[in-house]
Amino acid sequence: MRLYTGPQPEPYAAVSSVAADLVFEQTVPTYDQAGNELETESFRRYPSDVATTGPLDTALGRRGRSATWYDGVGRPIAGVDYGTADFERTESPPPSTDYAPVSLSRYDAAGQAFESVDPLGRISRSTFDAAERLTASIANYTGGCPGNVTDVTVRRTYDAGERLRTLTAVNPDTGDQTTTYVHGVSAATGSELASNELLQSVVYPDSKDAANRVAYAYNRQGEALAMTDQNGTAHVYDLDGLGRKTADRVTTVGSGIDAAVRRLETVYDERQQVETRASYSAPNGRLIQRRRSSRRFRCHRRARDSRRGRSPRPALWRSCNGQTKRRPVRLPEASNSTDSAVSFAS
Length: 346
Description:
Elements: E1 2-5, E2 25-31, E3 37-45, E4 61-70, E5 76-83, E6 102-107, E7 113-117, E8 123-128, E9 134-139, E10 152-158, E11 164-169, E12 177-185, E13 195-203, E14 214-218, E15 224-228, E16 234-239, E17 245-252, E18 263-268, E19 274-280, E20 287-292, E21 299-304, E22 315-320, E23 323-328, E24 340-343
Antiparallel strand pairs: 1-24, 2-3, 3-4, 4-5, 5-6, 6-7, 7-8, 8-9, 9-10, 10-11, 11-12, 12-13, 13-14, 14-15, 15-16, 16-17, 17-18, 18-19, 19-20, 21-22, 22-23
């Protein structure tokens, strides 16, 4: 627990030392003269020690080490994760092993990272157009023809506004499978604004006709208000003043779709975290099931100050999962200042 009294916090110089702090994670980077991060040593506190203050070391936490190598213009070309081992960074990248897995990056003449090599030696390659847009990605690259095991290829095309137009998975067995993205919304497509930037629909490779697609509609803030899927199931979304989705209502159920649940509602707490979720049998129907958030430890704390005559002894009342526990705490002495704050460790 840290205690502050008066309008000013502790001296700013205290932030330069953690001697009196309980440190849970610690990262120590090492740089070269060009500012490139060569090595990183990190620690995570062991759960068995929750009392010792000050910087972490191998006695207090689990250590991890990694290193990076750069080319002459400061681009990372190799990285290794030593884990907890006591390897030292060498002048050049070592060969990849089980104890020191190394990943590599390679660059083309335009300076773009077009190839990466994982610790097992598998190559991933990317190609770009003159506008530096990704046009193809090839997994497990060998230089052969596109396949389903090696040289697995996905191609991309763009429209005049540089938005993704098509995504094609090259498949020698089934034929190429292309997903098409259509941009541009207006009142005619069900939106409350006109914009060429917003995604209007997605046509998947298995679409039977032009109507067999996923379509979207937006409000004037560009937030999704509705979605109709390939089965014809229509969703309408309710948003609160912060743009959070508070309800997902199914106004039309497509053929062959289970219609037992037609509305999902979400309630948020004051910290903007999900408080409850509820299921309903109709867009405006009766409740089927309500479920609270899965957060296991939800505690609300309040301090009672004896100087205000509310308690014979300063105490912290802690309400956890429906149970209230009383724990004594030390409150600041009265002072001439009206500003005071108490900070309790979580």
